[in-house]
Amino acid sequence: MLKLSNRFWFVLHGWLSLPIWLVFCFVCLTGTIAVFSHELTWLTNSAARANNPDNVPALSAAVLVEKVQQAYPTADVGTVMVFEPYLVNAVVFTDHDKPQAIAYVNQYSGEIQSVEQGITFIGFMRALHGWLMFPWHGSYSIGYYLVSGMAVLMLGSLITGLVVYKHFWRAFTQPKIRTQQGQRTLLADLHRLAGVWSIWFLLVMSLTGLWYLIQAIFWHADIDIEPHPPLVNVAQLPAPGSEDLARPVSFAQALEKVQQLYPDFKPAYLHLPEHNRDMYILSGGGDHVFYDQYAYRASINPWTGEVASSRSPEQMTVLQTLTYIADPLHYGTIGGIWTKIIWFVFGLVLTGMSITGFMMWGLRTFKGAAKVRKAVDIDELGETV
Q: Are the beta carbons of 282 and 302 closer than 8 angstroms?
């Protein structure tokens, strides 16, 4: 039976980690920053802060849409995004002079604090980390494949690293950092110690990254993890030439319908109909810790008020469950600010590991090259003599 040497595992560990170390380091760093993208938005953009000095309850998203439509009578509102209580709601709309705009509306006062055109900081960080700003061609992006594919190398590095580092569990009770034995020894000790203490984090990042890769393959192959929202039946539309083409079911009534369906529903992404056969598609979170803010969804018929389709964590398939628990685990939002801090710290550790790994490889490579040059010089000197 073929027995693989420790040297083999060491070399394999290096090759799994080093070819993409620069991109990997960049993805780790941007992901670490993305963990606090909402908090950084509040810190750097005063227009995004939802100040509530009088401690009044938040207004309904339907009221905020009315505020935007009053300020921009010709606007066509498409989406409302609800974030943390300390951030304003974002009302996305189009107008004759605005191909796409985002109104930052304070949900406590109803004031439109700013109207922006272009990508938000939160969206920018998500795009930079998730697919390196590569363009999307239909249902796939090379950048998304590149980033999610790193999960395979990360998992391989974790496994080979544990094989190379014998008795790694001792690092939990007997951490060793030798500062007096040279740079290579110090870097190796830091790299191993960080790796052992980050085993759980590396495993979470690898498994969620693998799911993102599988999800990308499904998208590319047009395999639906969940069904598309239904369209309004043509028979339910007003007759051609009808004078009243206004939808009888308002946005406020649709929200009320979802709230009755799911009492713990917390709005997150609210889509208004774009055409006559489109529906209100209302997504939000609930009291489930491990599911993201889009775990609940309902499609409301704007002509009849009926719930055309709905989905909650209890109704999900296995693949749907994986889809809606991946982000909270990947970005550390499962426990609010405290788990975000933990994910941020270990994200920095993972970024540092990629740097120390490359430095160790560089020192070893340069030292080996120096030895080869020295041997060649000695041989040439001997021939000369």
A: no
